[in-house]
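Propose amino acids for all 151 sites.
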């Protein structure tokens, strides 16, 4: 099995996962997969009644402005992710990794399937949205996800 690595973070690159492994397993080795309480306004599954786009993308260790910046430009991509349970679980798993999020934990969330893991396509759509000219981090804040510190 060849390990895969995170080749990009939200707003900075082409995709979240780069090199797929040779195995077809999508089992995550992160024990917190899909169970992270991402924010006080979240339901614990990555969705939120208080967020107009329905997805709590940034965990509580990020500046609150990061979520607002994402919501203002990429709301339709967030809503598409919310419609795919695998995408929501993938984000929750990644956000459950201890900050600063390291490649080994982040990559474990996609399991051996890497780029082919369920939910990765929708997650990449969010990442691609943040590379458009309309998206900007809040002044003085880095919203690089998942490995950034959000401050």
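Proposal:
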């Amino acid at each position: 099995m060849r390990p895969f690595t995170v080749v990009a973070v939200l707003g900075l690159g082409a995709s979240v996962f780069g090199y797929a492994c040779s195995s077809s397993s999508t089992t995550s080795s992160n024990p917190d997969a899909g169970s992270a309480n991402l924010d006080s306004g979240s339901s614990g599954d990555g969705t939120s009644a208080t967020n107009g786009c329905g997805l709590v993308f940034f965990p509580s260790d990020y500046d609150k402005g990061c979520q607002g910046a994402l919501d203002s430009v990429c709301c339709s991509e967030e809503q598409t992710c919310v419609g795919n349970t695998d995408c929501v679980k993938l984000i929750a798993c990644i956000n459950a990794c201890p900050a600063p999020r390291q490649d080994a934990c982040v990559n474990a969330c996609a399991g051996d399937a890497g780029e082919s893991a369920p939910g990765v396509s929708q997650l990449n759509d969010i990442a691609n949205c943040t590379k458009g000219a309309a998206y900007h981090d809040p002044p003085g804040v880095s919203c690089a996800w998942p490995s950034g510190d959000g401050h």
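The two ends are 36 Å apart (CA to CA). The chain is about 30% helix and 0% strand.
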